[in-house]
Amino acid sequence: MIDRPRTGVRELLTCALPPSASPDLSGLHVCIIEDNDDTRGLLGDVLQHCGAMVMTYERADAAMSDLREFVPSLFVCDLAMPGVDGLQFIRRLRALPPERGGDIPAIAITAPAMSTCQR
To answer: 102-108 long-range CB contacts below 8 Å, 24 or more apart?
Structure first.
């Protein structure tokens, strides 16, 4: 087995997608809520590569409590998380007044979690 240095996601993105071909997300503040470390890191790296400012959370309740101090432009939220799941988070978000984030666009993501899909 040959040991090769690992290339980071940012370096791979730079090689595969030069900044001139990347969408310009400058000024966009994205809040990622995802319990999977790899997925959360990859989404954050891709969005930062495109110029977005990114906040990441492992749990929806932590993101909800930070809305008192920081209101992002967009949420990217995993639906299947332990504790408060993504759907519950988005429902709670929609119950807030607009100035607290109630009308912020949200993108829901998930991976197949059913045993029949894992084969």
So the answer is: 104/71, 104/72, 104/73, 104/74, 104/75, 105/73, 105/74, 105/75, 106/74, 106/75, 106/76, 106/77, 107/74, 107/75, 107/76, 107/77, 108/77, 108/78, 108/79
Lookup: tokens for 3? 């040991």
Measured over all CA atoms, what is the biggest interatomic distance in the chain, rounded to whole angstroms?
57
List pLDDT tens digits, range 14-60: 556 666 677 899 999 999 999 999 999 999 999 998 899 999 999 99
Give the homologous superfamily in CATH for domain 23-111.
Response regulator (3.40.50.2300)
pTM equals 0.78
Q: Give residue for tokens 């400058």.
A: 26
Domain residue ranges in the chain: 23-111
Pairing of strands 53-57, 29-33: parallel
